[in-house]
Amino acid sequence: MQERVRTAIDGLTVTIDAAAVHVHSERPLRTLSSAVTGGGFATAHDVLNVHVRDDYDGDRPAADLAAFAAARGVACGFIGLMTAAETQLARAETIGDGGLRVAAVVSMGLSNVAAAGVTPPAPALPGTINAVVVVDGALSPAAMVNAVITVTEAKALALAAWDVRTPEGDLAAGTSTDSVVIACTGSGPALEYAGTATVVGWLTARAVRAAMDRICRDKCARDGGRFGW
Hints:
The chain is of the alpha+beta class.
C-alpha cells in the first residue's frame, strides 16, 4: 500500500510504502547529508530512503541503490539512504511560521539504539533513524551544518521523552547507523543560521519531533502499550 503525503511546500511530494520513502521536488534541492549515495553537499530532485532486509550484507550499497532508483524511474544524481526499519511506518510533518515552511520525513527503527559516548563501538544491528528535512528557503552552507546539529538534538530529546534506552539502561541518543539529510529549495528567505535560536531551527526541531512522536504513538497503538523499546 502506497501513501502520498502533502507537504504544503510547492512542488514537494512524499511517497511512503514498504519498499521506500521517496521525497521528490520539482525544483532542485541543495542538500547536505550523511547519505550512502550523494552524501556531503550535493544537488538533487530526489531523496530515496530504501528498505533493506535485516540480513543485508552491505557489500554493494551504491549499486543496489542505483538499481532501485532506476526501477522507480528516478534519474541519476539522487540522494540515497538505506534502512532495515519498516519504511511504510515512516511519518511526515510540515510546520510553518509566516512564509517559512519546513517538512520532516522520518523512518525509525529502535532495535539498534546507542548512547553517544557511552555505548562502545560494536557491529551494527538492524534499526536506523533516518531523517530528511526540507526547508523552503535558502540555507547557507553553515546553516545547513547548523540544521544537522538541530535535527540531532531534536532526535535525542524525542527519544528521551519516550524513555528509549539502550540494553545497558542508558538513555539513547539515536542508533549507531542514523542518517540525516538537510535540503533546501533555495527560494524564499536567505537563512544564515539554523540553530535553536532561529525560526528555521525551531520549525526544524518541531517537525522532526512531531514525526518521531507520531511513529512512537502508532507503535504503542499497534502493540497495545509500550513494548519493544
